[in-house]
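Example 3.2
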Amino acid sequence: MTTAREIIDYMESLRDDEQRRVLMRFFKTEPGDYGYGDEFLGLKVPQTREVVKKAKDVPLDEIPELLMSKWHEVRLCGLLLLVSKFERLATKRLTDEEKAIRERDEILLLYLKYAEQANNWDLVDLSAPKILGHWLLLPTYLGDGTDDCKRQVLDELAQSQCLWKQRMSIVCTWKTSQQGNPLWCLRYAEIHLRHPHDLMHKAVGWMLREMGSRVSMDLLRDFLRQHAHEMSRTTLRYAIEKMDEAERRRWMSESK
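Structure, written as tokens:
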């Protein structure tokens, strides 16, 4: 498969109406829910990943058609194709190669241009760490190539009125924490600490937990000492999941 149309036709041929109904309930597509209006074919994620393997060489300029699809799974396919292309350009051998840097930047810009099409938590979570988060750790020709430039990109997402862009700005820090850098997580956890949406409460707590586990539990404890009293209980509960029961009880007693 080398065109968006071929990919879409193939994915539509796999439609499963029973699974479609299950997914529409799971991803909250009723009026008033965060996923209202989303449409599903009824494909499971492993099926979509198989499509990605078959279509891994589709040209980059075909992917916007996938990202603009009404079908959730087709948009996921487009995002996972971007992930696949980015990761192939981010190997150790290609880290500093000029052509690879420019092509990674091109993928990132495309991802940001269509960020609002990643309009459910799974679409964000399966793409943001591996594209945006990985880009934070690599050389770039965008702006002046410094961390200040990279912070500006994340700040624009964090300050957006779009829930999914906001989630990108914190969930992408999963990758930086995996690589031993806690600063991105701490910055965007603090920015989003008073966010009103439950999906952001969970995301912030999840990223703090991962930062503590991957980098330093003492850093996590320092952050909690400063902020536990102003966190939602959901955020705090997620953040402390890997602590022992007695310590979890102590922290929960400090939440608002």
